[in-house]
Amino acid sequence: MGNQVEKLTHLNYAEVPTSDPNGFDPDDDGPRIGVSYIFSNDDDDDQDDNLDHFSSDSRAVSHEEKPFDPQDELECAIYYREECVHERSTGAATHSPESLLNKCRPGDLLEFVATGQYPHWAVYVGDFQVVHLHRAEIKNNFLTDVSQGKKGRIVNGLYRYRALPPEVIVRNALDHVGSRDRELYWRNSECFAAWCRFGKREFKIGGEIRIGKQPYRLKLLFSEKKSHVLEFQSLEDVIMEKRRNDQIGKDAVMQELANHLNATHEIKEEHFVN
Hints:
Helix content: 25-40%
Number of domains: 1
Oligomer: single chain
Pfam families: LRAT
Largest sheet: 5 strands, antiparallel
Shape: globular
CATH architecture: Alpha-Beta Complex
Protein name: LRAT domain-containing protein
CATH topology: endopeptidase fold (from Nostoc punctiforme)
CATH superfamily: endopeptidase domain like (from Nostoc punctiforme)
Number of helices: 7
CATH class: Alpha Beta
């Protein structure tokens, strides 16, 4: 295989190797499992087509039926080697679209959230409008249209990179309006919005070579004493997994992880039984 990177689809916890069958790491001494996800190119289409709707004819479950539940949001942190580059704590306030408009400034990153859906990110460019990646196209729409009733929040501080000047952020976003399909360099709305604000190639498709030891760690924080760490070879891959966890929710992630660790322990026991 050499340095060739094969195209793989997402693997859930039950399909990846683990080095420790005991599960959670109460002492937080380091990664418990080493995982590298390489996502297929159509993963963003799956996300946006099925779960990132905002059009009037959307077939997704209505947001009134599934309001955002902050209790089901999973705290996490992303590390590049020993440096924390992203951190989310639970309890961040969300606002109605109308209230959010009063708080926005050009260049702000916005995140719209609803239970059971991938978070949808956008860049506020002024005049009540945002630029965002949706259904394999970068669009310029009114904030209230994009939200479709979802609550939103300003998320400038989640990534700990130095932001570009507001006018550069807005220009980055507007310059790509109309780009679609093969012209796109981002897998999802979060990668595009974050690239506009920080300008780092790591947010782009293929922005980092996936060779050698995984330099990124995604730390999942279930409680003060329970955490779990996954390892990845690129920021792009970490974001894909983080977004999947946001979509299925904290309880589902915990159950999925517990099922995998129990299954791994059983397999190891069977392997050593004569």
